[in-house]
Amino acid sequence: MRDLKDSGIEWIGEIPKEWEISKIKYVGEFRNGLTYSPNDVTDKENGILVLRSSNIQNGKIDLNDNVYVSTKINSNLIVKKGDILICSCNGSKQLVGKNAIINTDKIVTFGSFMMIFRTKNPKFMYYVLNSGIFTYYLETFSTTTINQLTSKNFGNMNFPFPPLESQIKITNFLDKKCKKIDLIKDKILTQISNLKEFKKSIITKAVTKGLDKNAKFKDSGIEWIGEIPSHWKISKVKYTGEYRNGLTYSPNDMTDENNGILVLRSSNIQNGKIDLKDNVYVSTQIKSNLMIKKGDILICSRNGSKNLIGKNTIINSNITATFGAFMMIYRTKNSKFMYYVLNSDIFSYYLETFLTSTINQLTTTNFGNIKFPFPPLNEQQEIANYLDKKCEKIDEIIELKNKELEILDEYKKSLIYEYVTGKKEVK
Length: 427
Fold this sequence. Notes:
By secondary structure, the protein is an alpha+beta fold. It has three domains: 4-160, DNA methylase specificity domains (Adenine-n6-DNA-methyltransferase TaqI, Chain A, domain 2), CATH 3.90.220; 162-211 and 379-426, Orthogonal Bundle (Helix Hairpins); 233-374, Alpha-Beta Complex (Adenine-n6-DNA-methyltransferase TaqI, Chain A, domain 2), CATH 3.90.220.20. The protein is 31% helix and 22% strand. It has helices at residues 122-128, 132-141, 151-155, 164-209, 335-341, 345-354, 364-368, 377-420; strands spanning 4-6, 14-16, 20-23, 28-32, 41-42, 48-51, 56-57, 60-61, 67-69, 84-87, 99-101, 108-110, 114-119, 158-161, 217-219, 227-229, 233-236, 241-245, 254-255, 261-264, 269-270, 273-274, 280-282, 297-300, 312-314, 321-323, 327-332, 371-374. The protein is elongated, with a radius of gyration of 25 Å.
């Protein structure tokens, strides 16, 4: 049995006698990132990579969605191998605090909504920042109007601090344990990715070829779509409904649930459905045409992460809500069929042509000019009903896989917490 002592922090309880309680500011240095304008954004050949929230995926640095800038950068804003990159500010409260260790020696900077933490034993501190300790503090820092981890709040975080020898033992142990968990997670993530691709292929076939196996076909006039049923036509989005961008509001307009109106944002779309866990409310005058209606398709039209632009969902219930300036609403007669068009390869193709290294935006002009195969109304309904059944089965499997991921994440976090607080000892 180890000798224990009271940590002085009620929710942590006892810690090993030889451990201390320290503050983040005493074990390293930290700073906020680079402020840059859209005019500074350039291509890979002419700029320096700016790490942002979207460059952290599943606790690792991910370089699939990058931004580069051509501006003068102070040396203290260049990351070093071993730095911990932290999302310090985000429209989505759930993303504040996500972090990863920098594992490259390349010349890279980080954006103003990010923070770098530099410390002697980054791996141990990485585990502290991925335990319930950090989660607890993030919940106390965040409010209904503030989604930010300030350097002051971060620096004043208390945590159990073992001797260096114990830090190394704990780190080595958790590396092995977490690697096993991450391998299982990677397999599940691959399965989910394959299921989503399978679902998309079913949707694309139905909205471009129809359901009648005996139908006659004609050339669509669009090379990458090929043939379509001969009685279908090619239309544009602007001829099938109305669409508009959302509400512009300032931080001063934000309030709590009891005094404001819900503003739907990108974070309110999760896995193709409305998710109301991460909400913002505003107390400002809102025009009637900016109020959501049942049957509207909500689309993310602008985002710092290119991968999120175009994600969409149907509003299936009567909710009192508006939508933010980085979102778009599309209102059409058969919204279910058009929802499937917007979740097919058709929409993906156009998004790739609209978005560049310097433009992360789906404009109303570009959206309205999207061409797609347009069947008669009765076939639209048949296709929508067919896809509802097909996709429901796939979505059920994906949901089960996501629950498996949640269970693994909770297990991993609790495992880390047990060891970085000294509840369990590495033998």
